[in-house]
Amino acid sequence: MQLTGAEIVIRCLQEEKVEYVFGYPGGSVLFIYDELFKQDKFKHVLVRHEQAAVHAADAYSRSSNKIGVCLVTSGPGVTNAVTGIATAHMDSVPMVIISGQVPTAYIGQDAFQECDTVGITRPCVKHNFLVKDVRDLAITLKKAFYIAKTGRPGPVLVDIPKDVTNQKCEFEYPKSISMRSYNPVVKGHGGQIKKAVQMLLDAKRPMIYAGGGVILSDAADRLVKLARTLGYPVTNTLMGLGGYPATDKQSLGMLGMHGTYEANMAMQNCDVLIAVGARFDDRVIGNPAHFGEVARKIIHIDIDPSSISKRVKVDVPIVGNLPDVLDELQKLLEASAGVPDAKALAAWWKQIDEWRSKKSLKYKQGKEIIMPQYVVEKLYEVTGGDAFVTSDVGQHQMWAAQYYKFDKPRRWINSGGLGTMGVGLPYAMGVRFANPKATVACVTGEASIQMNIQELSTAKQFRLPIKIINLNNRYLGMVRQWQQMFHGNRYAESYVDALPDFVKLAESYGHVGMKIERPADVEPALREAFTKHKNDLVFMDFLTDQTANVYPMVAAGKGLSEMILAEEL
Amino acid sequence: MRHIISILIENEAGALSRVSGLFSARAFNIESLTVAPTEDASLSRMTIVSTGSDDVIEQITKQLNKLIDVVKVVDLSEAAHIERELMLVKVRAAGKDREEMKRIADIFRGRIIDVTDSTYVIELTGNGSKLDAFLEAIDRSLILETVRTGVSGIGRGDRILKV
């Protein structure tokens, strides 16, 4: 049967079992929206700004492992989406972005709402396409979904000129796809895995360092099994939180710039390190030269060969899909005659417990001023540790990561790589669409939340009962912290003046607003929000300590064991 | 270290910019880059000359392989290979210089492919240093214009880069 390009787009999305498309209409995508209007197999979520459409689709994907889809128009629709696309790309989130383009005959003519979409997005997508012939449309969309979710996942953009959406051709959705230029590795190299097993068994001071790859590939259960078999300590990166249960005794918590003392010390001093879906990011290992001062053997499992030996030279690289590699590793480990060196391991745990006894996350909650850490701790208690928590970017993000103990994967949704302020609210929306019954909290700050505050309107339209935990310190907190520590207390442009009354603002959108100013009110207010207002969006504006800093801290360019601890200041 | 990297890539619009964009985005260096379709019109072959430590070259090949359109990547300089570059030089060739220019072109096995009363265009093929040597050998003040293609390379013997 002959279908128009617009009909083909809709049919392809239906074939891919898409549930939601996050988007915003405009001239170049009107034929697509017209077809979307005529169908009811998937729903469209109208956001208030294209950036939020991409963030919402991104979080939909992160919190469910389904592919997030968004639809934007040409020109400004695309450029608004770029921040969202780059955010997803840095964190390897599988997504498909469909963008309208001016008609093919107008391309290059500086037409109204024209931009070089493929050129602008090239460095921040896994791949992109410009479809100039309607006969290529179905296969291109099939490729887009395939590329997005296989190998190291990532966003794929398909740019479709308006005339293509109105031309007709025969439609058949390809059942499968093969590309001679794209064949991601799945199985790890057997010999390398064998070497890794021996190295793990020979370790005296072992360490498991698990990143976002564990979450993305749904390998958390395998990681837990491996860690339990070995009895070795585990640390998670910011992106990996929930990949290993934070409340487990083998968990050392998060490592890195704001990691725990025990995680960073163990990372620095271990003799065998196994990196699982992590990439030795600058915020994780600090100064690579300092990290390299301690001799240690490194095993690195990753689906992306270019992540291996990029910042740190490794001894046993294993390229492959984590669940497959971990299964194989587990099998060889269980079949092996060797066992971990119990005596060495006991000494290592004793050392780790000494580091733990520093209690590097301790803080003081007085009677007058609310400490931001306290709010997150109470949020954890009130939600029973079982909420989906999104965050924006800055101090509140670190406090959420440090004090909310994530025991399950896909519960912690944040922009780790690009560090995009403004993701929190659209992320919470995306999470709720993917998990319609879930408790969703967005931990944010008064600066970040204003970067996509217009989405309070979308949240109202779709009745999304998100709980916004606004840690309001009237500062760009992380900027202020760096200015205090490294720029002689000169707080250049980090004070946020002329804040809105968030309670009234929330109410004007039809939501519930609360202002919490005293420590004693924190827990009751949270309980009220999560019980009485269970079905409402509640904007909780917590006035918190203006001078609170995030500790421990490894300053930029410093080594992991050179942490600044709270008590030292 | 100087490396010659050969790439087979899907011959599609924007393929070149994916590769050149990768080099600029990751601060890799390009000395020269040549590209043209192969005998199979669906594939283009690129030759990139780059310099960098072994770690950098390893990253370059990994990052190139990661591009969805790239079918194969080979570091030609890892083993025996041949490299050639084509140069066209327009020189002033009048009076006493006319004979001398022809003589030097012959020594370098260059061919004169365009002649006017006062100029020659000389075509010269070889590796980069041969082309450099030719430019050194002639009187600099007589050079009107030069154009070089950049290096093309191919493996010796059984080393074959093909899909």
Write a structural description:
The complex is a heterodimer of chains A (569) and B (163). Chain A is of the alpha/beta class and 569 residues long. Helices cover 37% and strands 16% of the residues of chain A. In chain A, α1 (5-15) packs across α2, α1 packs parallel to α6 and α8 (190-202) packs across α14. In chain B, the strands form 2 sheets. In chain B, strands 5, 6, 7, 8 and 9 form a 5-stranded antiparallel sheet that branches. Chain B has a 4-stranded antiparallel sheet with strand order 2-3-1-4, with helices on one face. Chain B is α+β, with helices and mostly antiparallel strands. The mean pLDDT of chain B is 96. Chain B starts with a strand and ends in an 8-residue tail after the last strand. The longest helix of chain B has 13 residues, at 54-66. The interface between A and B is medium-sized, with 18 and 20 residues.
In short:
Chain A is α/β, with parallel strands linked by helices and 569 residues long. Chain A starts with a strand and ends in a 26-residue tail after the last strand. In chain B, the strands form two sheets. In chain B, strands 5, 6, 7, 8 and 9 form a five-stranded antiparallel beta sheet that branches. Chain B has a four-stranded antiparallel beta sheet with strand order 2-3-1-4, covered by helices on one side.
